[in-house]
Amino acid sequence: MQVLANNLMTSWGTTRSNIGRILLKMPSDRGIEGVLEQVGRAGIELLIDQELMFLGQIYGAMVDMTEELVEGREADLLRRALKDLQGDAIDRCFLLMKFLYPINSVQAAAFNLQSASMMNRARGWKYWTIPWISRAKTRC
């Protein structure tokens, strides 16, 4: 378990997702407790912050790569790849949040954010932002 927790901290992308899923599936929350014991809450929050910074870079690239600014088949492929990276990074954020918050709450937030209903999306943002707001208040 120690090796998985260490690799969770140093890996990126699909590898990080796969390690996180393995740890979350361990019986009796052994994986969650082991990771929190090994890297602590601050370590998981650091990983979430990295994913959010990565998302910011993706969004910046998407703004720079609009169809009006850059045309062509290669640009279309890059835009599609960026959109896929965006979805993967968001999924990793929710995966990492499962180490810090009740899994059912994280799943409800993810489900609501993917909904077509504006009301459900608002509920999803409520689940998403409350932990971060309360964390920011404790740091002040």
Describe this structure in words.
- The protein has 140 residues and is mainly α.
- The protein has helices at 2-10, 13-24, 30-64, 73-97, 103-113, 118-139.
- It folds into two domains: 2-100, no CATH class; 102-140.
- The radius of gyration is 17 Å and the shape is globular.
Task: Give me the secondary-structure topology.
Blueprint: H1 2-10, H2 13-24, H3 30-64, H4 73-97, H5 103-113, H6 118-139
Anisotropy-based shape: globular
How large is the share of residues in beta strands?
under 5%
Sequence stretches where pLDDT stays below 50 over 5 or more residues = 136-140
Distance between the termini: 34 Å
Q: Which structural category do the helix and sheet elements fall into?
A: mainly alpha
Order of helices and strands: HHHHHH
The tally of beta strands, per DSSP, is 0
Helix content: over 70%
Provide the gyration radius in Å. 17 Å
Average pLDDT: 84
Described by strand count, sense and barrel closure, the largest sheet is: none
Count helical runs: 6
Number of domains: 2
This entry's quaternary arrangement is single chain
List keywords for this structure.
140 residues, mainly alpha, 2 domains, globular
Short synopsis of the structure:
The chain has helices at 2-10, 13-24, 30-64, 73-97, 103-113, 118-139. It is mostly helical and 140 residues long.
